[in-house]
């Protein structure tokens, strides 16, 4: 049964003009906002240097801290009597090194203040390279 006699069914058509307009706007936007690097136009002559590899190896300062707040510098026990005294002990242990690496080996249960004391002493001594040691969790 065809109840719509005389009506012809229109075939749907896809109008491509709006889609092309949108794509052109996107293309223009990308062309305007993209910055192009022109490395091929730069003529850079890098300086050359020659020299011997450094033979002096820098020894880090190993600072040990346990849960009972016992301090040690390079495995030598040291009574803690203040930040200034500890800074002087760091300078003495560093010897002639200008800026040694300070490795803090702190127990997991060491109070936070003890680690901060070591960091403050390193700052007072003029040392800025501080690192911490950790261990992997057992699986």
Textual characterization of the structure:
- It is a single chain.
- The chain is of the alpha/beta class and 139 residues long.
- The chain has a domain at 61-132: Nucleotidyltransferase, domain 5 (2-Layer Sandwich).
- It is 31% helix and 14% strand.
- The chain has three helices and five strands.
- Strands 3-2-1-4-5 form a five-stranded mixed beta sheet, covered by helices on one side.
- Helix 2 packs across helix 3.
- The chain is elongated, with a radius of gyration of 35 Å.
- The mean pLDDT is 83.
The CATH first-level class of the domain at 61-132 comes to Alpha Beta
CATH topology of the domain at 61-132: Nucleotidyltransferase, domain 5
Which blocks of ≥5 consecutive residues have pLDDT under 50? none
Net shape = elongated
Number of strands: 5
- The span between the termini is 76 Å
Give the helix tally: 3
Radius of gyration: 35 Å
- Beta fraction: 5-15%
State mean pLDDT (0 to 100 scale): 83
CATH architectural type of the domain at 61-132: 2-Layer Sandwich
User: What topology, given as strand order, has the largest sheet?
Assistant: 3-2-1-4-5
**Largest sheet, strands/sense/barrel:** 5 strands, mixed
Give the SSE string: HEEEHEHE
Structural class of the secondary structure composition?
alpha/beta
Helix content: 25-40%
């Amino acid at each position: 049964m065809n109840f719509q006699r005389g009506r012809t069914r229109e075939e749907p058509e896809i109008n491509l003009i709006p889609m092309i307009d949108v794509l052109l706007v996107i293309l223009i936007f990308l062309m305007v906002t993209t910055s192009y690097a022109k490395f091929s136009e730069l003529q850079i002559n890098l300086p050359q240097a020659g020299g011997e590899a450094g033979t002096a190896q820098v020894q880090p300062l190993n600072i040990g801290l346990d849960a009972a707040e016992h301090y040690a510098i390079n495995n030598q026990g040291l009574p803690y009597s203040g930040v200034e005294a500890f800074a002087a002990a760091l300078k003495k242990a560093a010897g002639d090194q200008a800026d040694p690496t300070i490795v803090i080996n702190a127990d997991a249960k060491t109070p936070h203040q003890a680690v901060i004391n070591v960091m403050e002493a390193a700052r007072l001594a003029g040392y800025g390279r501080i690192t911490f040691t950790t261990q992997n969790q057992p699986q």
